[in-house]
């Protein structure tokens, strides 16, 4: 069984996730930890639970989701997984860091490319990769079918959807991704988003004003 620990980091209130199972192997998704205190919160949780991070995953590479990439790679000796279509976003992060006041941001590079339908494994667990562009050109979501959840990044929120006023974003593409890749999941799947609290697929189908069906 996968256990999910969420942290809310940095000035943009980004959700970072640590997923782990009974083997104590873990994956870290979208580390937004920026200052020293946030890094200490993350590392303390990992140490206290005797976890062994084995992979670093990014749903996408907007600055608030990658602030801790370099730190996590260095601290735990893990490699970064990202969809190749988000490489331009990752490369632009250093420029955007200055714009958002993250002057100490340390850039890093992806080590592996994620693909739609790929399985990401750790311990006794597996996540399905689903390609969900729109908010970012290489955005992916990670689906845990055995435990009925999706780590959705900035695609689908409780009562809202990801912004599409950024470069390389597109609203129609985002809506298509939600309808074909997320709303095809069962209604009881929990959505762990990149900002704000959790929701479910069924709740958003019924009530989300942007993508209600």
UniProtKB/TrEMBL annotation:
Its cofactor is Zn(2+). Keywords: Hydrolase, Metal-binding, Zinc. Gene3D superfamilies: Ribonuclease Z/Hydroxyacylglutathione hydrolase-like. Transmembrane segments: none annotated. Residues 13-195 form the Metallo-beta-lactamase domain. InterPro entries: MBL_Glyoxalase_II, Metallo-B-lactamas, RibonucZ/Hydroxyglut_hydro. The keyword Metal-binding applies. This is MBL fold metallo-hydrolase. It comes from Larkinella punicea.
């Amino acid at each position: 069984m996968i256990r999910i620990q969420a942290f809310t980091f940095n000035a943009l209130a980004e959700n970072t996730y640590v997923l782990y199972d009974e083997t104590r192997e873990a994956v870290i998704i979208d580390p937004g930890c920026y200052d020293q205190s946030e890094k200490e919160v993350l590392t303390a949780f990992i140490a206290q639970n005797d976890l062994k991070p084995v992979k670093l995953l990014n749903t996408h590479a907007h600055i608030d989701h990658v602030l801790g990439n370099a730190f996590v790679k260095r601290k735990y000796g893990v490699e970064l997984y990202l969809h190749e279509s988000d490489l331009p976003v990752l490369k632009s992060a250093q420029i955007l860091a200055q714009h958002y006041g993250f002057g100490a941001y340390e850039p890093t590079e992806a080590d592996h490319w994620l693909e739609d339908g790929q399985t990401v494994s750790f311990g006794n667990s597996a996540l399905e990769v689903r390609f969900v562009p729109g908010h970012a050109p290489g955005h992916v979501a990670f689906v845990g079918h055995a435990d009925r959840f999706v780590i959705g990044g900035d695609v689908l929120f409780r009562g809202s959807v990801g912004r599409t006023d950024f470069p390389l974003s597109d609203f129609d593409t985002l809506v298509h991704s939600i309808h074909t890749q997320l709303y095809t999941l069962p209604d009881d799947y929990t959505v762990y988003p990149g900002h704000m609290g959790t929701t479910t697929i069924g709740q958003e189908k019924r009530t989300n004003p942007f993508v209600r069906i």
